[in-house]
Amino acid sequence: MYYYRYENTEVSCCYKYLMFSYNIIFWLAGVAFIAAGFWAWSEKGILLDLTQVTQLHGFDPVWLVLLVGGVTFILGFAGCVGALRENICLLKFFSGMIGFIFFLELLAAVLAVVFQSQVRAWLNEFFLANIKAYRDDIDLQNLIDSLQRMNNCCGAEEPNDWDLNAYFSCNDTNRSREKCGVPFSCCLSDPADSVVNTQCGYDVRNKPKEWSNDIYTKGCIAALEDWLPGNLYTVAIVFIVISLLQMVGIYLAKTLVTDIEKARFSY
Fold this sequence. Notes:
By secondary structure, this protein is mostly helical. The protein is 61% helix and 0% strand.
């Protein structure tokens, strides 16, 4: 009786430890993201009262941190253990999930280009919903302030969008000191100021509509639309780098699976 023998029946140590090294970074990053997410929740007291999670009316950025951390942790763990233990199931799970994530990224990019008007409407609606919840969550508040300051914008379409927020509304029943104002992140920044004036937006919308001397008048959706064409190459390079990293992970996993199968089924 004759048996077919492969010339090399050993699992390549090179691919094995490259796969481990590739994934240990992502596994540690996942741990860091999860730890940061739970730390943020502990600072807000959510870990002491988990019902607060369902009471938020806007987007809690911690959810995104935990989601990214959870996915990164699971994939990094599967890749590390799969490589060290030469576990074919874990390696196939890893490569399959990376491939699925890549497909979702590609699909999202195509849909964003094809359905631009719908995406714009969704982003506008999402931003307005979070303007309403601006004071409900400190992380959401910091996120909106960062977006407005970085993009020199105010509101989704215009500064009057802040009328949707109970604290900044011009409604006659509003007794807040911030009535008819905007957040400080809408104010024109002065490089000479070493201390941020958090009251600079008070009563701004009570004044005649000559706001351009005090605050940004462009909406953040329009600012994003203006930013994208000028940074298209940057976005493309980031997407290509992420895609290449994913392809490298899939290649290493597939190659390692092939080596393991050869070593196990050769006689």
